[in-house]
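Input:
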Amino acid sequence: MRKVSFVRPKDSSLTKKGNRMAVAFFGVLIVLAFLPVLLVIMSSVSSEQSVVQYGYRFIPHEFSLDAFRYMGESGSTIPRAFLNSVMITAVGTLLGLAIMCPCAYALSRKEFAESKLLMIFFMIPMLFSGGLVSTYMVNTQVLHLKNTYLALILPGLCSTWYLMMLRNYFIISIPDALIESAKLDGANPFQIFWMIAMPICKPVVMTVAVFQIFAYWNSWYPALLYIDSNHTELYPLQYVLVNMERSIQAMNRDAQYLSGMNSVVPPTVTMRMAMVVIVTLPIMILFPFFQRFLKTGLTIGAVKE
Amino acid sequence: MRKSSFSRSRRRENRQLRLMALPAVIWFGLFCYLPLFGIFFAFKEFTPVPGRSLLENLFIHSPWVGLRNFSYLFRNPQSLAILGNTLFYNVIFLVAGIVIPVFLAVILSEIHQKKFTGLVQMALVLPYFLSWVIVGYCVYGFLATDQGQINSILRFLGREGIQWYQSPQYWRLILILVGIWKSCGYSLVIYLCSITAIDRTLYESASLDGATFWQKVRFITLPMLRPTIATIFILSIGSLLSSDFGLFYQVPMDSGALQEITQTMDVYVYKALMQQANFSFSSAAAFLQSAVGCVLLIVSNVIIRKVDPASALL
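Output:
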């Protein structure tokens, strides 16, 4: 990777005054970009009564965690969906890497005879795809994925982007001499891949992993297509959110059932926002740790050297 | 003797490499190549016989209709409006998606405090990693009729609240703002990375010659960014007829009153397929998306290669 040089203050083309203006400008921009998320978080910790009266506000009129408590007490919809999402994310990410990494390594080797041919094979889907209709028909009628966990995992496993990203990194960062000497010691390609290539290429593998984690955690479209309303136990968290109104009804029913008929009035309005917070929170917590890898990925993916 | 054992080991090695590539080949075969035969959906009238396999239904039981699905698509005023919507939003996103992030990246790269630069990137790229469902509810927090932030402000100012999800006239602007808000940070990081990779001595010598800030941007930064801009341009023009399903379905909360303004090709294909089971129609639309995207991608790449070979993608 090319060494990136940073601007030192004395090299910058901005004057002191210009710099202050730019900082102020971006300060405003940060606030603007973050406002919508802040509004959701603040609304979720407001009391139901204050939201009904004053609306969603940046500064809660009355602080309350009722919405979260209610969701915890109202049956298994949310915990189940949370587990589904975690499971789908973990399995999808790991399985995808297990398929893409060895393939990318094989493609990166000059001595691999079919390398060029396979590159074309993997590139064509980037140019042309069958479209939603036939994808849907094949997944439901040929592969029989309707109403299974597999429908939420398999379609997102691989992508040509990640494959190329991994391959390029394998080519750039593993010295040929290293592989040749390992071969002289009698190592086969599997061993070289696992014991030499993977440890060296950990940064890019982590980058792909992080992108996939976000993609799976955020995915709801496959659930919309392949999971019908008779299989709510398969819903990932994001899809519970898509079906917000119906989910809230189901939770109210469960809550009434669990607590007898004398349950409190459900905090419907704040619960909406509380559910959004539950889905977003893992992303917000992981984001600072993942940021390093995201940047590597964005750079390798899009900047042509 | 030596030679044959050498080539035998080469052959074994190649076999093992092939084995390593095999799972990915199978996956692409099942999930990318198998749906390709679905192109035929667009040229047939799909009349499935219950209990038969998909392939048999498609190739034996469904009659060829030539281009009828397409002519229906182009004569239907509703689908023309949807085509228009899709192009409208995509052209705006194409231009705004280059101009705004490049502008921001150019200024951000010159800011003295590097810690601050990192903070800006992180804050602006965060929306990119939120799902459209979440973005939809973030927007809802502002636009909800009774509890929304904007209506609260309007009432505070003594005005009537607006029923946002029933008022199509505002939604072009809303969708454009939301789309830019979500994707701008991502492109910003990409452009910023390519700007920091520019050789600083170019700027130093320009300063010695007395160049102003905007002259340096005009004659150094922008020309050096050309390959990155070209890459992003080619990639986004390839999806000229595709649209972000989430933005146009989830953010307007699938509100019927807004359909005229918010419906784009992907929403249309989805609804035709899932709600009306209209296979021929939706597959013709999907085929159009794919074909136009493919042609545009190749053509724009050829043109860019003619103008500036270093910037071309393929």
